[in-house]
Specification:
- 53% of the residues lie in helices and 19% in strands.
- It contains three helices and nine strands, in the order αβββββββββαα.
Amino acid sequence: AKKKKKKKKKKKKEEKKKKMSRKGAESFRLFGHDGPYKDCMGVYHEHSSETRNGFVLRSVYRHEVLPVFLYWHSKDQTWALSNTIGSSKCWMFSPDPARKPHLIVTPWKYICPNSKEWREDDRMNCEPRMDGGASRKEELLKTQLVAMESVKKAMNDENKSLRNRIHLAKSLTSSVEKDVKILTEKNKSLLRRRSELLQCLEELESIKKKCKDLTQAKAQLEAHSRNILMKIESKEHLLGKYDASQLQSPLVPVDASASASAGDDGIQVREYCGDDSD
């Protein structure tokens, strides 16, 4: 318990020292940059200082809200702006050996995130600010307002994009509805054609059946005609035989009186020639 009390006292003393040091700390305001690092603009308060033989050389400054630092890089001899103190990889720098940031005259340069090229910014500048409560509150309010404006712009842009998307969706739905109507009409016409084709197929099947019946009747007729031809040939053969027998046998004289009497009675006499069945 005693150790905890001692630790609490030490923390309170350190906090008091920090507050006392902040009262006499310097503050600067960066402004003018409207590029990819415009959020880094604002008030910077003294974070730490570099001393040598009791003399303060150059201080490190921290952004009020963001974890961004403005520091002097002794190796490159430049004022730099980045998220790590003393890093040579920075976002912005100015090759000006000024003691304080507000005394910088050489234009600042910033790196482009896309092309990784260094570009010069003549509008960026720095001015001293007193580290008082009212000014600090004003700067905080300004930064909050700027953030709110940026959020508002982003929301407006999103609303515009959403409106454009809704308009595109409406146009697409109307075009899709038209296409659906056209497709339904085509489907109806195709169904009609299908029914017509089915009727034609039924007619073709009936025609095929009739053709089969006709072929069967034809076959029957051919068979009947063959039978008739066979009978005719047999009769011709018999007639030929009869003619040959008549030629070979002697002629018998016919009684003229009998024939005349038969003729008078109305009876016709004919010679036998072939089968009596016909």
